[in-house]
Amino acid sequence: MSVHRIGILTGGGDVPGLNAVIKTVVYRASEIDCEVIGIRRGWEGLTHVDLAEPASRSRYILPLNRQNTRTIDRTGGTFLHSSRTNPSKMKGVPAHLQGESFPTGTGKDGSTVYDLSSQVLKNLEALGLDYLVAIGGDDTLSYASRLDALGFNVIAIPKTMDNDVRNTEYCIGFSTAISRATEAIERQRTTVGSHERIGVFRVFGRDAGYTALYTSYVSSLRCCIPEYVFPLDKLLSVIAQDKANNPSNYALVLLSEGAKWEGYELREKGEADAFGHRKKANVGEDLAGEIQRALKEETIISDLTYDLRSGSPDFIDKMVANTFAGMAMDCILEGRKGLMMAISGGCYQAVPIPDPKLGPRKVEVATMYNTDRFRPTYHGKLGLPIFLTRA
Hints:
By secondary structure, this protein is α/β, with parallel strands linked by helices.
């Protein structure tokens, strides 16, 4: 098929490597005389834009070229900005669409939600787009799957430092997150050790514990992940023993934000986002309280979450980002659609966009996590791909 205009957007939380994807798509497209149109602020750019109104068009639509993307891969974040918008479950209708009729449903909180997919398709057509490259995590890509089902040509690229998108062993942002977490923990060891305390660290991982598990893998920490609801007394005993055995008289433990122990309920705060997620209260603070109560030990609590997604990408994330972008363009030139760029079996692959009904990919506790030691499993890795798990 003849391709003339490609749209590209980033949705959900930012991670290092997104700008490298955008730049590579633009540069490859320029070699085949194909235009690239940046959709700003994720899916919001296709629900809220009023293409007849210049200010709205300027806010949400940005033509991309080699000049305005030349240096963006040198920094983190997303040049196109982002949002957590789900066009199929909008809590309200944009002002310029008031009076128009859209299908309705009921949100998780019982409120009325609107499906603006027809408006998304209308805007894609008005922009003259032949393809859309959607870069995001499981939430963003869940709507990419919906758009694919509605018949639009979509290519997906997975990004999330949680590394929990199905059908791929790796998502852009994961390596940098692990590198940053490792560096931060190693720096803070000196403070925790100097005061002979117990250091409690929290990282992202609402449903899956990959970030905590792999940080633990390379840093030799105890870790707690959402996939295993642990006995608190057992963890406290292990931490106390670690401190007693350490010549510097300190101990460290790392938790995913979704980790919990038996009898503990994670606290949430704030309003739910467009995908029904509320922010989780800091489980690290709650565990520190249990440590202070049961062990009579002082703690240092460190929330590493947002620091892990900030700044420029490391080598792996930049390489994977560039490669995924090149693969996406190859698929577009071949007229393929409904695919996500992935790593499977340690190799680059184009796979189906994941079925949203399956939810996020999770750590396989039986093979990857030692529940007795609160550590990753280190044996039995011969023959596994580099990221130690298969998609």
